[in-house]
Design a protein that fits this description.
This protein has 165 residues and is an all-alpha fold. It has a single domain, classed as Ferritin, core subunit, four-helix bundle (Ferritin, Up-down Bundle). It has 5 helices and no strands.
Length: 165
């Protein structure tokens, strides 16, 4: 992998982590009534936030202009509306299917990021880039935990939600 390949991987991974953080925060907002999911999503979104920040720092050292993580959205009319809707809808079956869909999408996004972390680690080893290897070695395990978290929730919720529709 050339340095162009490394910069492309950094850029792709950065975009993936930003996207995953936004998706986790949006899903947490949609599913406030599912407390386990809601709080778990907020927790694992922080990891993507940190990954994005670290990737932006690494990119700056390589001449890439990667933006930092997305800022925390200010509570506004849309946020308030989402919260009230989530509370009013509670555990309706169609909300359960939306939760499963969100979990599937989050799982796939985290898996994509995991693949890129693995490629970045391999490139870092091949080029003997200790900084990139440290970055991948410290961030990739948390991405793997995000995958396990979504997988566990899918296994727990699927039987009940799919059979009650």
């Amino acid at each position: 992998m050339t340095s162009t390949g490394i910069t492309l991987t950094l850029r792709t991974l950065h975009d993936g982590e930003r996207s995953l953080e936004r998706a986790l925060l949006a899903a947490a907002g949609r599913h406030r009534a599912e407390h386990e999911f809601h709080h778990g999503a907020l927790d694992v979104a922080r990891w993507s936030h940190e990954h994005c920040s670290r990737l932006a720092d690494s990119g700056r050292g390589r001449g890439l202009g990667l933006p930092g993580p997305p800022g925390d959205p200010a509570p506004g009319v849309l946020t308030t509306l989402r919260e009230k809707t989530a509370g009013a809808l509670g555990r309706r079956p169609d909300i359960g299917l939306l939760l499963l869909r969100d979990l599937c999408e989050l799982h796939l996004a985290a898996t994509r990021n995991s693949l890129h972390w693995g490629m970045l680690a391999q490139a870092a080893q091949a080029t003997r880039d200790e900084d990139l290897l440290t970055l991948a070695s410290e961030c990739h395990p948390r991405t793997l935990r995000q995958i396990r978290w979504t997988n566990t929730l899918l296994r727990e919720h699927s039987p009940q939600l799919l059979s009650s529709v």
